[in-house]
């Protein structure tokens, strides 16, 4: 069974083909980052227009280079939400229309389920059940995963998502958009001069709050001489605080659920220091940890093709409607 996957929820156009037995056949990504960086953030209308320009050529390329034609494809999975409405609609309308023309099912995939399942594309995938930490630009979620579709929300960010906090702090430090990876590079030159708080770790619970760290960074910057070294020191202190906070909460989640497997995914899971802090924590807890490869931490079509294939294998797909849900809770998904 071949499934074509389409991702257009934000600023990356992703297309991939996944086969139920042979695995990932091909994947293609066009990033709009250069276009949006001029504006210091994603401009939704420009994102939609660029998805329109890039999506169909990428689908054609994916089929041609995989030596497949439309007759070989058994289903089309598309990101139906959460995300930017206009951007979602491009992928949803294209996927649904192609599925109608090719007389095959269309599968509306939840973007965060895609991230959650991305480590399944690796050589040593986790077995169920596990705890998943999803850290992206729009969401920070701790989820108990009993099965595909059986997601119990353990905790979430009450304000900024982890990636959002990285991006806002990076902007404040004069780095471009998106700032996560740039802040991380700058932090590499930082010295351990400042100690930032570990928000919401002094009380029970698994929710997060990252917006205070951004303010703490701003206040620290204002009180400093604003040299390059000061900025690097602040970046390092910020990154340390996020990594430590995530490790404390994940440790709690593992202890609370009694599970010994942690899956970490979403754009921020590309961060090397966060990976190191979580790996160290899981080793102490005698638990295993799983990450997607770096290119599948951030948005991509492969994770959508994979998630859609699992849903289709379970007999699930949608009718003729075009589904785009900017807001959509992962806990609302049906089981497989
Ligand atoms: O998952 P993703 O591609 O998109 C959403 O679903 O939101 O995540 C993008 C986020 C951005 O906030 C970006 O700054 C952050 O992931 N990010 C990083 C790193 N690479 C990407 N944050 C920290 N360190 C990184 N190396
Ligand atoms: Zn994402």
Question: Topology of this protein?
Answer:
Elements: E1 2-7, E2 12-19, E3 23-31, H1 33-37, H2 44-65, E4 73-81, H3 85-102, E5 106-110, H4 111-117, E6 130-135, E7 140-147, E8 150-156, H5 162-172, H6 180-187, H7 211-223, H8 228-257, E9 261-265, H9 272-284, E10 288-290, H10 301-313
Helix pairs in contact: 2-3, 4-10, 5-7, 5-8, 6-8, 7-8, 8-9
The structure holds 5'-O-[(R)-(carboxyoxy)(hydroxy)phosphoryl]adenosine and zinc ion.
Compact description:
By secondary structure, the chain is α/β, with parallel strands linked by helices. 42% of the residues lie in helices and 20% in strands. It is built from ten helices and ten strands.
Structure write-up:
The chain is α/β, with parallel strands linked by helices and 336 residues long. The chain has two domains: 2-116 and 296-332, ATPase, nucleotide binding domain (Nucleotidyltransferase, domain 5, 2-Layer Sandwich), CATH 3.30.420.40; 124-291, Nucleotidyltransferase, domain 5 (2-Layer Sandwich), CATH 3.30.420.40. 42% of the residues lie in helices and 20% in strands. It has ten helices and ten strands. The protein has a five-stranded mixed β-sheet, sandwiched between helices. The chain has a five-stranded mixed β-sheet with strand order 8-7-6-9-10, with helices on both faces. A hairpin with a 4-residue loop joins strand 6 (130-135) and strand 7. Helix 5 runs parallel beside helix 7 and helix 7 (211-223) packs antiparallel against helix 8. It is globular and about 60 Å long. The mean pLDDT is 98. It binds 5'-O-[(R)-(carboxyoxy)(hydroxy)phosphoryl]adenosine (KG4) and zinc ion. 5'-O-[(R)-(carboxyoxy)(hydroxy)phosphoryl]adenosine binds at residues 10, 136-138, 163, 166-167, 178-181, 184, 266-268, 270-271, 298-299.
């Amino acid at each position: 069974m071949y499934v074509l996957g389409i991702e257009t929820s934000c600023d990356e156009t992703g297309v991939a083909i996944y086969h139920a037995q042979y695995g990932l056949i091909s994947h293609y990504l066009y990033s709009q980052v250069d276009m949006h960086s001029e504006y210091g953030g994603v401009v939704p209308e420009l994102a939609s227009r660029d998805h329109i320009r890039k999506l169909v050529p990428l689908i054609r390329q994916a089929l041609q280079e995989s030596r497949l034609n439309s007759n070989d494809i058994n289903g089309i999975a598309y990101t139906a939400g959460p995300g930017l409405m206009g951007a979602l609609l491009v992928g949803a309308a294209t996927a649904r229309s192609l599925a109608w023309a090719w007389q095959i099912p269309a599968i509306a995939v939840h973007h965060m389920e895609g991230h959650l399942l991305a480590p399944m594309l690796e050589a040593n995938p986790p077995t169920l059940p596990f705890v998943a930490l999803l850290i992206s630009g729009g969401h920070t979620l701790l989820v108990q995963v009993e099965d595909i579709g059986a997601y119990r929300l353990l905790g979430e960010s009450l304000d900024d998502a982890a990636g959002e906090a990285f991006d806002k702090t990076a902007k404040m430090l004069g780095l471009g958009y998106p700032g996560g990876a740039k802040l991380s590079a700058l932090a590499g030159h930082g010295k351990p001069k400042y100690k930032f708080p570990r928000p919401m770790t002094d009380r029970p619970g698994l929710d997060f709050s990252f917006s205070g760290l951004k303010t703490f960074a701003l206040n620290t910057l204002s009180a400093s001489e604003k040299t390059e070294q000061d900025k690097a020191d602040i970046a390092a202190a910020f990154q340390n605080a996020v990594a430590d906070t995530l490790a404390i909460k994940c440790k709690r989640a593992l202890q609370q659920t009694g599970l010994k497997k942690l899956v970490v995914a979403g754009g921020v899971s590309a961060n090397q220091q966060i990976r190191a802090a979580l790996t160290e924590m899981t080793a102490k807890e005698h638990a295993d940890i799983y990450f997607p490869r770096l290119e599948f931490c951030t948005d991509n079509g492969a994770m959508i093709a994979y998630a859609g294939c699992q849903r289709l294998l379970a007999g699930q797909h949608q009718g003729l409607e075009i589904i785009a849900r900017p807001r959509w809770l992962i806990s609302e998904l049906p089981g497989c």
